[in-house]
Amino acid sequence: MRKNLLLPSLILLGSLALTAACAGGPSGTESGQGGATASSGPAIDDQGIDPAKINGLDIVTDSSEHGSCPYATSYPAVPGADAMAAAMRKDVQQRLATFLGTNDGAQATDCGGGSGSRSGQELNISHQFLIASGDVLGVRLSTLDRGAAGDGLATRTYWYDGAAKAYRTPPGLVADGARESFIAALKKDLEGQEGVDAGQLDEVFGDPAAQTAVLDDVAFGTDGGMRVSFDRGDVGVPAGGRYAVAFSKETITPWLSAFGKRAQQQAMHPSGTLDLGATGAPEEPVPTHRASGEDTTDCTKVKCVALTFDDGPAVPEAATLLNHLAQYKARVTFFTVGQNVAAHPELVRAEAKAGHEVGNHSWNHPDLTRLTPEQIRYQLNRTSEAIKNATGEAPTLFRPPYGAMDAKVKAATTLSPVLWDVDTEDWKYRDAAKVAQTVIAKTEPNDVVLMHDIHPTSVAAVPEILRTLTARGYHFVTVSHLRTTLAPR
Ligand code: ZN
Asked: What's the distance, CA 307 to chain centroid?
C-alpha cells in the first residue's frame, strides 16, 4: 500500500510531525511510520525547533469561542521575513473569509449566515516550523476545513531566503533547469501509486499555473531527502486520500536550486539560530510581578469572581494585561494554547509567578469532540508539557475550545474541565467599552467570566472591569481557588 490514508489523522494531531516522521524514507511508503507516530503521542516536536529561540516571533492568532461558528487560525510572523508573513496572512484571511462567507467585505468577525447555521463546520489553521536556522525559514500551515470538499485538509509550505531577502514558494527549492526532470520523476512515482489517474497528472503538470498550485507542500527531512505532499484529490482519486512522493538526498540534490541546497543543509545540520538580518525592534520587556504569598480570600465570606483569559499568550497583550492585574492585586486564570506557550514560555512563566493560574486550552484550538481519543490526548498532553516546561508545574484545569465537550473528551483526560458563566463574546465585539460593560452588568458572585487576551480591545477593558467590580466588593481569584474555597468541607 503506498496510499497515505493515515496522514490526515496524523495532521489533525496538530504537530504535523509528518516531515520528521516520514521524510526519512526513500520512497512514499510512509503509512507504517505515520501510524507509529500517531500512536506514540507527542514524542517528536517538529524537527527539534524551539520557537522560543526565534527573536521577535509573533504568533498571529485569531479565533472564535462559539460552537455556532468555530474557527481558529494562527501563523508565525518572524522579523525580517515580512513578505512571507504577508503571504501567509493573505492565505489565512482568504480561507477565513471563505469560511465565514464574508468575501463580500462584511466584517471579518461576523459569522456570515449567522449563529446556528454552521453546525458540522469548523475551520482550523495551525502552523509548524520546518526550518528556522541560518538564513532559512520554512513553515507549514495546515488547514482543516470541515465544511470544504474532500476531507477538507490542505497543507502548504512557505519559505524565506534570508540571503536574498526573498519569499519563496516551494517550486523555488528546485533549480529552473531541473524542473522538467523533477516533474517527470514526480509523475513517474505517482503513476505507480494506487488510485492515481494518469490523465489527471497530465492535466495538473501540463499547465504551469496548475502545477504551481499543486506543488504547494515541499519540505526536507533531517536526512536531506525531499518530500512532496499532495492534498486529497489533487493528483489521485479522492478516496485515495493524500499522496506523497519522497526523494532521497542522492536523487534530489542535483535538482536543487541554490536556495534549495541551503535549505537542505539547514534541515540536515541546523545551525541552531535563525538570522534573517532583521534589525527589528527590541523585545517587549516581560513583567516581573510576584504574587504576595498564598491567596487567603474566602469566597464563602466575600464576593469572588474568576476572570479567565483564553487563547494566549500573545505579544504584547499578555504583558499589558499582567500590568493591569498587578495594579489591583487581581488573580486570574489563563487558558493557554500550546502553540503559543511554545513560542512564548517566558510570558507563561511570568503569569504563573504573578500568582495567576495557567490552564490548558489545547495545542491548536480544535473542536475536541471531533477528534479521536488519541488525538484529544495529544492536544492536551502536548500543551500540558509545554506549560510544565515553562512554569515548572503541570496544569490541572482545561477549557475545551468552543466549550465543546462530551463523554469522550472527559474520558480522555484527567484535567478538570472549566466552562464559564459570563460570555463576553469579546472575540466578536472588538470593543473595549462593550466588553467592560458586559462583564460589569452580568457578573454575579462566584461567576467564571470568559475573555480572550489575544485581543487588545479585551485587554483594554480590564482596568474598567477591575476598578468597578473592586468598588462593588469583588475579589479576583483563580478558578482553582474559587473551587477549593467553595467546596463543601
Ligand atoms: Zn479559545
From this structure: 24
* Residue 311 annotated among the catalytic residues of the structure: no
Please give the pLDDT value at position 39: 29
Q: Is 455 marked active-site?
A: no
65 touches 450 (CB < 8 A): yes
Return the C-alpha cell found at 335.
Answer: 487558558
CA distance 373 to 379: 10
For residue 401, report the distance from its CA to the centre of ligand 1, in Å: 5
Instruction: Compute the residue count for the chain.
Output: 489
Half-sphere exposure of 122 (CA within 13 A, CB side): 23
Of 452, 455, 475, 481, catalytic: 452
- In this prediction the pTM is 0.88
Catalytic residue among 46, 295, 310, 367: 310
Q: What is the pLDDT of residue 76?
A: 97
Q: What whole-number distance in Å separates Cα of residue 283 and Cα of residue 323? A: 17
Convert the pLDDT of each residue in 120-140 to its tens digit: 789 999 999 999 999 999 999
What's the gap in Å between 417 CA and the centre of ligand 1? 13
Going from the Cα of 334 to the center of ligand 1, the distance in angstroms, rounded, reads 11
Give φ, ψ of 10 to 5 degrees: -65, -45
Q: How far is the CA of 453 from the centre of ligand 1 (A)?
A: 10
Q: Is the peptide bond before 316 cis (omega within 30 degrees of 0)?
A: yes
Q: Given this model, what pLDDT does residue 9 score?
A: 44
CA of 402 to the centre of ligand 1 (A): 6
- C-beta of residue 332 within 8 angstroms of C-beta of residue 478: yes
| pLDDT tens by residue, 256-288 | 999 999 999 999 999 889 999 877 666 778 999
pLDDT in the model for residue 489:
62
Residue 42 has pLDDT above 80, yes or no: no
* Residue 376, all three cell numbers: 484529544
State pLDDT tens for residues 416-453. Answer: 999 999 999 999 889 999 999 999 999 999 999 999 99
